[in-house]
Design a protein that fits this description.
The chain is mainly alpha-helical and 275 residues long. The protein has helices spanning 2-10, 18-33, 39-44, 47-57, 61-68, 73-78, 83-86, 88-112, 117-120, 142-157, 163-181, 183-186, 192-215, 228-249, 252-273. Helix 8 (88-112) crosses helix 13 (192-215) and helix 10 (142-157) packs antiparallel against helix 11 (163-181). The relative contact order is 0.16.
Length: 275
């Protein structure tokens, strides 16, 4: 399996950056044409779409709130923790990609400083699920960047060979990603363009991470069993963190993440002990 992933990554071309860059430029030109490059107008042109999405998705608060947790790297990565043992190349790309996403997310949020919906609209007019977020860091959506960073790495890692299968696989990943990221609008945390822009940046982060891991072997030690105690310690810490979240919020997604991580912890301990 690891060999398949390596071969898939080796076939990726820089031309894959053209589409996301085009989409980002298209968004900027759209905002410019609407005179919405300022914060107030940016929010105003999305007001109707935000209320429409928020009012409809907000009708399923439990589902939306559980799904939106996948934008948390700890939760989403827990489901793929077992791949450290069987497909370490994916984790090499994931680590590089997530570092890139962090380097992009924090500065962009500070530069744009767009206030969250809860800081702009009356609480009685929008649906807020979970903790109300009132900061000025709405654009881009960090959860959306994380989701599409991870999904992009998986998209190309497991890309089928046949064209029809490639199209179906790509559509499946994109659809799943959009369903997850638009929960950020459903729970009242972001505007639509926040999550769309975040998704595109996440895709770029994922691609950059793949290229970095392909050229530089900075994470090659992941495949070395003598370093497994590092992951065992990290998994234990993450399990404790998930237990704390279960105690405080008791979301079903946390239980699934915990079980996935616990299974991975058991497996990696077993492999390390038998080395």
């Amino acid at each position: 399996m690891n060999t398949i992933v390596i071969n898939n990554y080796s076939r990726i071309k820089p031309s894959l950056f053209f589409l996301p860059l085009f989409l980002l430029i298209a968004i900027v030109l759209f905002l410019y044409s609407k005179g919405a490059l300022c914060t107030d107008k940016y929010i105003q042109i999305q007001k109707s779409s935000f209320f429409f999405i928020n009012s409809h998705l907000g009708q399923y608060p439990n589902l939306e709130y559980n799904l939106t947790q996948l934008g948390d790297a700890l939760i989403f990565l827990s489901f793929f923790s077992i791949l450290i043992l069987y497909v370490p190349k994916i984790w090499e790309a994931l680590l590089s990609s997530l570092l890139v996403s962090i380097l992009l997310t924090c500065p962009l949020k500070s530069v744009f400083a767009v206030p969250r919906p809860d800081a702009v609209f009356n609480n009685d007019t929008i649906i807020i699920v979970g903790k109300a977020l009132c900061g000025h860091n709405s654009l881009p959506s960090g959860h959306s960047i994380t989701v599409f960073t991870i999904l992009t790495v998986l998209l190309f890692a497991l890309m089928p060979k046949e064209l029809k299968s490639k199209i179906l696989w790509t559509l499946l990943i994109i659809t799943a990603g959009l369903i997850i990221v638009f929960t950020r609008v459903g729970i009242g945390a972001h505007y639509p363009l926040d999550v769309i822009t975040g998704s595109i940046i996440g895709y770029i982060s994922g691609l950059l991470g793949i290229f970095i891991s392909r050229k530089y072997k900075i994470w090659a030690w992941i495949n070395n069993k003598k370093y497994y105690p590092i992951f065992i310690l990290l998994f234990v810490i993450c399990c404790i963190s998930l237990i704390c979240r279960i105690i405080h919020e008791n979301l079903i997604i946390f239980y699934f993440a915990f079980v996935s991580l616990a299974v991975s912890l058991y497996k990696i301990i077993t492999v390390y002990v038998k080395k």
